[in-house]
């Protein structure tokens, strides 16, 4: 916990920047980047509010903006997210065989981590206080919007 | 198998119509509709080719086009798909607590059905020859595109 490599710290910071950009737009502050061989190939943030979207969680937005990648690119990718990926986003990582996910925090929400690990994906937990603070503040201010985002 | 109610047959036919529309656009022939209380609230088809999308599988397209629904709407919904939902689409059904999925066929591709059932979702298998034929013909003609769609 909290022992990321320098590269992982750098890319998690990019995901946090995406979360902050989403918050500034009036959206849900969750951000994500997809990295292949040390390069960001897609970056995004939750766009439920901004685009009236039921599917553009941060991770989905990052994958969509990465475009149509080859299977071998996904297979050497790391997905960074400021928050533990939900069932949808976890399932998407499984579909594409993304082998490694770096998670900002999983205290305010926890996706199906045990199942994802059972499918062979490495999950790295940063337990980052900036990620937690973004979600704690947002959930306190907009609980109904947060519940909508996780189907509650 | 193959013993759908009249309502399920009707909505599966709508999903097949979506698959055929996708095929006519040069896309992957998989279609889906989301039904709440006997009404189609979202309909869609795979748009990988048409929109260069990595996330718009048929079920995702139908859910996105349904817009931001309330949790209680998803909880009484049925999702129809011409093909067994993949990890991504299955995860999305789980996120939103969709309790029932009607599947056109699962012979050309099978998603994580056992896991989805273990999470409490009812899966109804139509084993429909029209759905199978659409996929068999497509896979024979465009195997590389099909593999891309399922991350292979």
TrEMBL record, chains A, B:
CMP/dCMP-type deaminase domain boundaries: 6-123
Classification via Pfam families: dCMP_cyt_deam_1 (PF00383)
One of the protein's GO biological processes: nucleobase-containing small molecule metabolic process
Keyword GTP-binding appears in the UniProt entry: no
Quaternary structure, from the entry: Homodimer.
Gene: tadA_1
Cofactor requirement: Zn(2+)
Localization, UniProt: Cytoplasm
Transmembrane regions listed in the UniProt entry: none
Molecular functions (GO terms): diaminohydroxyphosphoribosylaminopyrimidine deaminase activity; metal ion binding; tRNA-specific adenosine-34 deaminase activity
Domain of life: Bacteria
Name of the protein this chain belongs to: tRNA-specific adenosine deaminase
Organism: Botrimarina hoheduenensis
Pathway participation: Pyrimidine metabolism
GO cellular component: cytoplasm
């Amino acid at each position: 916990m909290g022992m990321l490599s320098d590269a992982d710290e750098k890319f998690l910071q990019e995901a946090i920047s995406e979360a902050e950009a989403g918050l500034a737009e009036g959206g849900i502050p969750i951000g994500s980047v997809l990295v292949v061989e040390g390069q960001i190939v897609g970056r995004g943030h939750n766009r439920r509010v901004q685009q009236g979207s039921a599917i553009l969680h941060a991770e989905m937005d990052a994958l969509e903006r990465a475009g149509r990648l080859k299977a071998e690119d996904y297979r050497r990718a790391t997905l960074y997210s400021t928050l533990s990926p939900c069932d949808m986003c976890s399932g998407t990582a499984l579909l594409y065989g993304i082998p490694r996910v770096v998670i900002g925090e999983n205290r305010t929400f926890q996706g199906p981590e045990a199942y994802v690990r059972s499918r062979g994906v490495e999950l790295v937990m940063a337990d980052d206080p900036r990620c937690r603070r973004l979600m704690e503040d947002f959930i306190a201010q907009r609980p109904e919007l947060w519940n909508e985002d996780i189907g509650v």
